[in-house]
Amino acid sequence: xxxxxxxxxAVLEALSLPAPATFGDRAEHDRILSDRVMYARIVLKSxxxxxxxxxxxxxxxxxxxxxxxxxxxxxxxxxx
Length: 80
Known about the structure:
The protein is mainly alpha-helical.
């Protein structure tokens, strides 16, 4: 049986962005989250079609996440 844990962890990482500090940061947060959701959907569909390479899919997703890091000021960073 295929262990999907690495992929599930990568998807959770993709969807776990810090909250934006201000309303103005919300648009950038939403753009980055949208990109990350797109990549997560791609790897999930691919893994379901061929579960033999789940670890490769998880690595691919993490590479895409590195290209789309949070670039806005996070709520915690705002000292609130």
